[in-house]
Structures are given as structure tokens and as C-alpha cells.
Amino acid sequence: MPIRSVPALARLSSILRAAGLALTACAFALAAHAAYPERTVRLLVGVQAGASTDTLARVIAQKLHERLGAHFIVDNKPGAATRIGTEMVVKAPADGYTLGVANAVTTSFPLMFDDFAFVPGKDFVPVAMLARAPSYLAVRASLPVKNAQEFVAYAKAHSGKLSFGQGGNGSNPHLAALKLARSMGVEAVGVPYKGNAPTAVALAGGEVDFAILDYQSVRPLVEHGNIRLLAVTEAHRSSMTPDVPTSGEQGLTREIDGMSPWFMLVAPPGTPAAVVALLNRQVEEVLKLPDVRKTLLTAGIEPETGTSAEALSYFQQQREKIARLAREMNVSFKN
Q: Which domains does the chain have, with CATH numbers?
């Protein structure tokens, strides 16, 4: 049996000591996060109470409290197109006790602000995708069209006179409506309103001809016959409106697919991977609960789960799409 040299044995001993220290460090790290959460977790929401983002956050917060024991408190910090609440998440300690709910507006931050791009990895960690709110091509009930094909024919016959409502300059509904008009080869005048709900009211009142709107904003007006839904601007039909065909099914541009509100749980940069993994797993299980699905679908929101990596990929894809459409439509996000 060969005899190892003294230097070789010393090197082996050094390697074993290093490995032991690494394993000990990992054990301490796991133990440190095994009890998470040990105290109240604050969930920052950059919109006012009652909005879709707030509704979703409160459902998730209650269920996480029931499952993990600690209180998850929703803290509304509206203002500056959700920037105020979002910046608070970015600057919070990376310990898992401050989280945030990002929405579709955050993908436009590089186009809105010169000093706040909200970069994944640098400014935040995507924890989990939460949900999406499918949008629709909606028209005033008095418009003489019953489907997308008739709408295209009407739009071409009234090019330059056609109008659409939009609840925010450079928002997803605004860009989608512009892209739809361009794809049809028509001119349409955009009329701004302060949010999707006022846009839906204006559409129902006949102030504008069409709009791209989420279901929560239009649902009561659709049920009262003031607004007609011609297409869901998604790749697949929505379970909330199975009889409404997709835009693609009816030959409309697929570029407007997915230009809908979405919601993502995020954490400050540097949040421990163990905490992110625990939250991701818990959120995924919560979103599969029948009562949660029912509550969210009633609010016009479709639960959507996935890994942290998938949430990151989705965010980046949405950011690239918004930036491209803004260039193509020559839309400025700054006042």
C-alpha cells in the first residue's frame, strides 16, 4: 500500500477542514431561515385599497398568515405610477420581512423614469408569479358590430373618426389599442382617462368607440348591456368568458395578446434563496386552493403559478415587448 507524503496529507487535511466549515455554514444558514417567518411580514402595494393589485395581495396575505403563522400585513403606498411603493421594497432589508407586489406598470419604469429602472437581480428578486387579468377588445353597445370581423370592417370605413379610450399614457391598454389600429391600417384617436374603470364608464356612455380593458373594469357594464366584448386579447380563451373567442381566432394581430394586467410577488435584492424558495412554494400551493381561485376569478383575476426563474423570464419578456411597442408606436411615457 503506497504511503502518502506529508505535504499530500496536509493538503488533504486542509481540504477536509474547508469542506467541514462550508457544511457548518450551510447548516447555520438553513437553521437561521428554518423558523421564517418569526414576526410580521409587510406586503407593500403601490396602489390604493380596492384595486386589483390590492385585492390579490390581501387574499395572498391572509392565506400565508393561515399557513405560516405570522401576520402578513398589506401596506398600501400609492403614487407615482406605483414607484413609491416599489422603491420602498428595493430599499428594504433583505430579510424576507418586507415584500412587494409588482404589476405590469413596473416593466415600463425605464421608459418613465431616468433614475429608476427596477432591474431584476439588482433592484429586486422575483419570488413568484401570482396572477394575470385577461383583457378584452371592448366596444360600446351602440356600435353596429357583433364580432371582430365586423369591427375591422367598421374601423376601416370610419378611419380617422374612430376613437378609443385609454387609462394611462403608455400603459398596456394604450399600446395595445394603438397596435390594433395600426394592424388594421386605420387612424384612431386616443382619449385619455384616469384609469381603466373611468375608461369603461366612458365607453359605456358612448364617448369612445372601443378600448382594451380588463374584465374587472367592464364586467358590470357588460352584464347591463352597455359594453360588448368582441375578443379576449390572449393566446387562449379565458375560463371567465369561455364563449368569447380570442383575438387570434378572429384574425386580429397577435401582438396585442397578453397586453394585460399581471401581478408578481417580489423581494428586496439579496433576500436569502431559502426564504424565496419557501415563499414560492407556499404561494403556489395557496393559488391552487379552490376558495382562492374562486375569489380571484370573481374579481376578474386568473391565478398563475411558476418558479422564481419563470417569473424573472416573464418580467424580462414583458419589458422587452413594451419597449419595442413604445418605439414602434412612437409613444412617450413621460409627461
A: 37-133+261-329 (3.40.190.150), 135-256 (3.40.190.10)
